[in-house]
Amino acid sequence: MKNKSTDIADDMGSHHEQVAKYYLAAIVESSQDSIVTIDFNRIITTWNKAAEDLYGCKAGEVIGKSLEMVMLPRDFVALVENVASIRNDVTVPIYETVSLHKNGKQADLQIALSPVRDETGAVIGVSTIARDITEAKLDEQLKDEFIAVASHELKTPVTGIKAYTELLVDKFSHADDEVNLSLMTKLSRQVDRLAELIKALLDTTKLTAGEMLLQIERFDLASLIEEQVEHLQGTSPRHQLVVEGNKSIPVIADRKLIGQVITNLVSNGIKYSPEGGQIVVSSTRTDGGVRVDVKDLGVGIPEGLDHKIFERYFRVDAPLTSKTQGVGLGLYITAQIVRQHGGKISVDSEEGIGSTFSFTIPEIRINEVTSE
């Protein structure tokens, strides 16, 4: 039998639960993001004020109807697959799609999906949080266009400056003018850095626009790794670059771009291992193709930033990395090249311990070409 104090505790617990539900409902309703819940048949069950503004439909018009009514047909297929994943308790990464306003206007959206659970913890539906990124994407497009034009215009004069600098380095070298030779050598290095930055900016705009065409050929990946590592070892005597794995790995890919991927990852390991140390590049065949790992013992990546490391212009803002130079394009370009090959790239890192960057080249590339 319950006593009076137990009844009071139950009542208080029930009251606090009700208050929490009211607060949650108020937060959802006042959110700037569209928050919509659907069941496993994609039927809308809740619809907040931001959703009304985004899609142009009142809650009474859509609740009980399919979410398909505010989506383009091409994007609805992806929604079906994502809902199935959520139902099986599989996490779905944030992705982009397009919405359809009641007046016919389209909007670019960033979507986050999460499971809706009942009191027992069972998944009974899906919550969709949508953020309108139309203006942000337009701003990004304008920025890309400006960068593309500016980089292209800078490329020609920088090439000329580099040529004149090399002539002066040669002149002062033959004249035994050590002071001016030292100055011109330093100037030449800075011009090289500027040329690399311009190339990175041009590569970024091409990759973003899908204009970087792959020059597919058969080559030995193991030999390419040896070649790139040998060159980089000469530029960084403080680091010990080690190559492990198969001695011969034939692949079908863009040799130049895959070489750039290897160079970027090893250079990144060198950059973020300021005390020197070992960097290991290993390669192996997998069930899905070929995998390459680049492991360093450097400063690592702070927890929670792993998923952002491949974004454009992203740089880790931490004491251990504050002295490193760059604009945050190397890993973005690397990731885009790998993805354009149909592969995947990832990082496993611990701050203060080191990082392992991994990428794959799918076997399908090899099969497609060798079967012809």
Describe the secondary structure blueprint for this structure.
Elements: H1 4-30, E1 34-38, E2 44-47, H2 49-55, H3 59-62, H4 73-87, E3 95-100, E4 106-117, E5 123-132, H5 134-174, H6 178-208, E6 216-220, H7 221-235, E7 239-245, E8 250-254, H8 255-271, E9 277-286, E10 289-296, H9 330-340, E11 345-350, E12 354-362, H10 364-370
Helix pairs in contact: 5-6, 6-9, 7-8, 8-9
Please describe what this structure looks like:
There is one protein chain. The protein has ten helices and twelve strands. The chain has 372 residues and is an alpha+beta fold. Strand 1 (34-38) and strand 2 (44-47) form a beta hairpin. Helix 8 (255-271) packs antiparallel against helix 9. The chain is elongated and about 85 Å long.
Features:
372 residues, 12 strands, 5-stranded antiparallel beta sheet, elongated, 5-stranded mixed beta sheet, alpha+beta, 47% helix
Care to give the gist of this entry?
Helices cover 47% and strands 23% of the residues. With 372 residues, the chain is α+β, with helices and mostly antiparallel strands.
Question: Shape from CA axes?
Answer: elongated
What percent of the residues sit in helical stretches (DSSP H or I)?
A: 40-55%
Largest sheet: 5 strands, antiparallel
Helices, by number, come to: 10
In percent terms, what proportion of residues is strand? 15-25%
Instruction: Going across the biggest sheet, name each strand in turn.
Output: 2-1-5-4-3
Category by helix and strand content: alpha+beta
Mean pLDDT metric: 83
Number of strands: 12
Order of helices and strands: HEEHHHEEEHHEHEEHEEHEEH
Our Rg estimate from Cα atoms comes to 27 Å
Low-pLDDT windows of residues = 365-372
Cα separation of the termini: 81 Å
